[in-house]
Specification:
By secondary structure, the protein is an all-alpha fold. It has 3 helices and no strands. It is 93% helix and 0% strand. It is found in: Cell projection, Cilium.
């Protein structure tokens, strides 16, 4: 829209300048023609005035004789005829001037019509050129929009694939972490169970050792009691005992 406004302003400015130049050219031509015709008319008017002065001077001179008067009358008649001829020529010049002005105006109208037609054609050409430029620009904009839309679609597809890949990687990572955590828990439970088993085995071994120790103590006490019991009895021939018991 800004380009269209600038182009319209430029066209209006060019048209105003052309019209101004054409008006100046026409005014200059008209002024030159009028000045020329005015000079010609002034020259003829001066010539006619001079002839009239000469004629008046001749008429004012005293009449000398008949022959001289006759010649003056003939000269006056000739001057009157000449003045009539000059007046007729002046009228014809005025008429020709009108015809020239008319022809000049008609020619100028033709020139102006031709120039107006040329200006119209130029304007139509500029409008067509502007239309072609705008059409081309519109096509370029539409093509750019299509490319942008396609790029956006491809970008969205790539983003979707990236999101899916990220989600899948996250899922795999979570599964791996969960598996590792499960394995760690299982290993820890197995380790705890093994430690508990070993602890139970040690406790059982300790209890067994303690039981054996207490059993040995009990046997030792029972033996000492029997020894004391035997020693406390009166001395008599011991019965034949087993060699192992004798050794004891």
């Amino acid at each position: 829209e800004e380009q269209q406004q600038l182009l319209n302003l430029e066209n209006e400015q060019l048209q105003r300048e052309k019209l101004q130049k054409q008006r100046e050219c026409r005014d200059m031509l008209l002024s030159a023609a009028q000045d020329k015709q005015r000079r010609l008319n002034e020259e003829k008017q001066d010539e006619l005035a001079l002839e009239m002065k000469i004629l008046e001077k001749c008429l004012q001179e005293p009449q000398e004789d008949t022959e001289k008067t006759k010649r003056k009358q003939e000269f006056l008649k000739e001057q009157q005829t000449y003045m009539t001829h000059l007046a007729q020529q002046l009228e014809e010049e005025k008429q020709r001037e009108k015809e020239v002005d008319k022809a000049f105006n008609e020619e100028m109208e033709k020139v102006w019509a031709k120039k107006a037609e040329q200006m119209r054609l130029d304007k139509e050409g500029r409008k067509q050129l502007l239309k072609d430029v705008l059409t081309t620009r519109q096509l370029q904009v539409e093509e750019k929009l299509r490319r942008n839309a396609k790029e956006q679609e491809e970008l969205a597809q790539e983003r979707k694939l990236l999101d899916e890949a990220t989600t899948e990687r996250k899922r795999i990572e979570e599964e791996r972490c969960a598996r590792k955590a499960k394995e760690a828990r299982e290993y820890q439970e197995q380790l705890k169970a093994q430690i508990a088993y070993q602890q139970q085995a040690r406790d059982a071994e300790e209890r067994e050792k303690q039981r054996e120790y207490e059993s040995d103590l009990a046997e030792e006490r029972a033996y000492q009691e029997r020894v004391q019991d035997v020693l406390s009895r009166p001395c008599k021939k011991l019965p034949k005992t087993h060699p192992f018991r004798r050794k004891l």
